[in-house]
Amino acid sequence: MRVFIAGIDGYLGWALAQYLTARGHAVAGADLFLRRQWVEEMGSWSATPVVDIETRLAAFEENFGTRLLFRTGDLCDYEFVETFFKEFQPEAIVHLGEMPSAPYSMQSVKHAAFTMNNNIVSTLNILFAMRDVVPDSHLVKLGTMGEYGTPNIDIPEGFFEIEYRGRKDTLPFPRQAGSWYHQTKVHDSNNVLFACKIWGLRSTDIMQGVVFGTRIDEMGDDERLLSRFDFDESFGTAINRFCAMSVIGHPLTPFGKGNQKRGFLPMRDSMQCLTLAIENPPITSAYRVFNQFEEVYSVNELADKVVKVAQELGLKDAVVRRVENPRKEMEEHYYKPDHQHLFDLGYQPTHDMEAELRIMINDLVRYRDRIEAKRDLLIPEIRWDGTRQKVGFIGR
Amino acid sequence: MRVFIAGIDGYLGWALAQYLTARGHAVAGADLFLRRQWVEEMGSWSATPVVDIETRLAAFEENFGTRLLFRTGDLCDYEFVETFFKEFQPEAIVHLGEMPSAPYSMQSVKHAAFTMNNNIVSTLNILFAMRDVVPDSHLVKLGTMGEYGTPNIDIPEGFFEIEYRGRKDTLPFPRQAGSWYHQTKVHDSNNVLFACKIWGLRSTDIMQGVVFGTRIDEMGDDERLLSRFDFDESFGTAINRFCAMSVIGHPLTPFGKGNQKRGFLPMRDSMQCLTLAIENPPITSAYRVFNQFEEVYSVNELADKVVKVAQELGLKDAVVRRVENPRKEMEEHYYKPDHQHLFDLGYQPTHDMEAELRIMINDLVRYRDRIEAKRDLLIPEIRWDGTRQKVGFIGR
Fold it and tell me: Which residue of A266, A329, B200, B390 pairs with B285 in a disulfide if CB–CB is 3.0 to 4.6 A?
């Protein structure tokens, strides 16, 4: 299948290009290297060294025996998207090309406005180019479980049938996102649903949980094939950050009470799930939603797991110390999201989370110096109230 | 009260400035005259002659004995908004400064992207400037009843308590907007709710129905004080267009079956409702939603009312002829939205719709030549499927 990946130089995009190519798909992609710039703006870098795109592409060709069709370009430039689609004629389009960080978007009005425009307009451009160039293609759009927030009722996959004042309807499940970034994903979901409705497009909207991991098997021993691995407050996910902290003896820092529950999944399962969505498109015009995660844990539970594995690997300084919560969010709440659609397509979760953590931490130990060099960045300072000041440790 | 009006040169903004000033409020406002440009881009003009802003401001001072503090500027320029708020210290902020047309936004990817960015970023800028400059002020944000779409259940005012799988929660009512423009209003609502939640701001989000009318009493006989009155396919509301059509003997053109139901209200009631919201802010941090309309009619019923009044006024050629529907929307549907919150504040609807239509049509007869000159623009051509071709008459 011809698969176009928007944001192919990113954490998930670069891994997905390899995963799909290894399965025989023809992959093309675009990137503007904004993720590299944003992490630099945070004063940070990837724990895994990220080589320049030419070196990445050369390594790709050496390892997979095929060239990746790559273009540098801005998804907010409609002509760029349209031209690429005309040339490549994608059958599936995976949109991973958005600004993906809540804290980054919360820094200032300029960051909030940039995130809104970048994420919404890139998605609009893809939708219009699908309509006008490849109307039979299938959009796999990366959203986030964070779109739903933490309602006091079960979370279905996108839609629910409700009875209200004696009448029934099936409606989009209300979204309650917790950052400007998360809001953009909600706006995208609304826009993608609308485009499917009026133009008969096909789309799968992925509500993804928190992804963790350094690698997938396809990367083998070639360091040039590794995905980037961010651990700064903006671009590192909770678990990736916890693993990075454990290798340099920095306390692992759940926010507030740490009882915030989230869905988690390893990067290899994210690849498996995205590929299931790509290889099993809706047959006719449709907008479907997949909740994509493996298991629900509280942030405290995850931190404890990381400490356990780190200790087993001899990282004796790994401890958990909670910090003030820089966000405004519920720290105790009900959380029961459905995630059946991917199982229906044959999803086989990686059940051994500790084995995955062992691989990650072992990988990160090799890059201990690169993490140590940015130790000062591990305590967050971007606060949801608009101020900027490092949070303090709380409790024991 | 010091009231800032964003979009003060527009249809509602210019009337509201007069309505509030007559009631003793101190009004300031900003505009970039984009509405004038957009209507020009459609090849059209206002039926009522719109004089330049200097003439408008001079007329304002002559009639109301006070100067209007006006600045030309872009709400998408954060510094402009912040500086104005610092200087004026508004107690209430009325945001009418958005691109308000569904067809305009549906024309092309550029128009869709412009509408997204313009509406979302202007609102974000206002929210951030409130947080940083006037955190105790109250935002009255113009949304639209179109945010809700046409669900098969009752529409509450913003939120509803639901039971789902045996548990209960009060959640935002799901939105199903029908154009890119309407989507921006949904995105705004989500963003405003989020800002109120994390920053403790106060806001009233107005889900307004279709407004009609040429004037409010405060305009008196001074033509320079009249609001603009658009009748092109993009910037004319259904009823305003029907009245314009009736005065030049052009058939009134409901789309499709014409059984689409909407909430309607005359401009004078829109002023009354906005003022009730302004003068009765929430006491503490809150995000509240008012559904603002008077009565629900189908488009066919409205057209029939306009024909009846026009005939009584001697406009014997006024007839209804349905046209193909250029939009994708339900033409037969359940529609029962609540609208209690404004009544609770003392809203007194103008019950005599026919009297209002009589005033409008009489006003428009004076500008018959200006409407006649743009007769070709009365049949819409912007279609939701992305094509552009004038719709044809259907049925009898």
Answer: B200
CA nearest A117 in B: which residue? B117
CATH architecture of A2-377: 3-Layer(aba) Sandwich (3.40)
| Res B395 pLDDT > 90 | no
Please check whether residue A86 touches B, CB under 8 A: no
Of A19, A148, A181, A297, the active-site residue reads A181
Q: Which of B151, B190, B198 sits opposite A186 (nearest CB)?
A: B190
A340 touching B (Cβ < 8 Å): no
Q: Do B120 and A125 touch (CB under 8 A)?
A: no
Q: How many CB pairs under 8 A join A and B?
A: 141
Q: Can you list the positions of beta strands (E) in chain B?
A: 2-6, 26-31, 69-72, 92-95, 138-144, 159-164, 167-172, 202-208, 210-212, 261-266, 286-292, 295-298
How far A107 CA lies from chain B's nearest CA (Å)?
11
So what's the pLDDT on residue B350? 87
Write the pLDDT tens digit of every residue in A181-204: 999 999 999 999 999 999 999 999
User: Looking up tokens 């359940």, which residue turns up?
Assistant: B334
Is residue B68 within a helix (H) or strand (E), and if so which, with residue range?
none
Where residue B357 falls among pLDDT bands split at 50, 70, 90? very high
User: Which of B389, B258, B364, B265 lies closest to B320, judged by CA?
Assistant: B258
Q: What is the mean pLDDT of each run of 10 residues along chain A (396 residues)?
A: 98 98 98 98 98 98 98 98 98 98 98 98 98 98 98 98 97 98 98 98 98 95 96 96 98 97 96 98 96 96 97 96 97 97 95 92 97 97 97 86
CB contact under 8 A, B153 and A167: yes
B55 is catalytic: no
Q: Where residue B373 falls among pLDDT bands split at 50, 70, 90?
A: very high
Catalytic site includes residue B328: no
The conformation of residue A245, written as its DSSP 8-state character, comes to H
Distance, CA of B244 to CA of B267 (rounded, Å) = 16
Does A152 touch chain B if contact means CB atoms closer than 8 Å? yes
Helix (H, G, I), strand (E, B) or coil at B82: helix
Report the alpha-carbon distance of residue A323 to residue A392 in Å, rounded: 6
Nearest chain A alpha carbon to B384: A198
> Is B316 part of the contact surface with chain A (CB cutoff 8 Å)?
no
What is the residue whose two structure tokens read 């994210």? A270
A181 φ, ψ (degrees, to nearest 5): -60, -50
- How large is the average pLDDT for residues B294-302? 96
Model-wide pTM > 0.80? yes
Say if the Cβ atoms of A125 and B113 lie within 8 Å. yes
Structural domain boundaries in chain A: 2-377
Q: Which chain A residue has its CA at the smallest distance from B158's CA? A: A174
Question: Is the Cα torsion angle B147, B152, B158, B164 positive or negative in sign?
Answer: negative
Is the CB of residue A281 less than 8 Å from the CB of residue A202? Answer: yes
pLDDT by residue (tens digit) across B268-282? Answer: 999 999 999 999 999
**Among the listed residues B128, B129, B105, B107, the one whose alpha carbon sits nearest the alpha carbon of residue B117:** B105
Q: Is residue B351 very low, low, confident or very high in pLDDT (cuts 50, 70, 90)?
A: confident
- Per-residue pLDDT at A396: 58
**Cβ distance of B120 and A121 shorter than 8 Å:** no
B261 is an active site residue: no
**Pairing of the two strands B261-266 and B295-298:** antiparallel
How far is A161 from A156, CA to CA, in rounded Å? Answer: 10
Asked whether the CA dihedral A308, A314, A318, A319 is positive or negative, the reply is positive
Torsion, Cα A381 A384 A388 A391, to 10 degrees, reads: -40
Q: What CA–CA distance (Å, rounded) separates A123 from A195?
A: 11
Average pLDDT of B49-55? Answer: 97
For A191, the closest chain B residue by CA position comes to B183
ipTM of the complex: 0.97
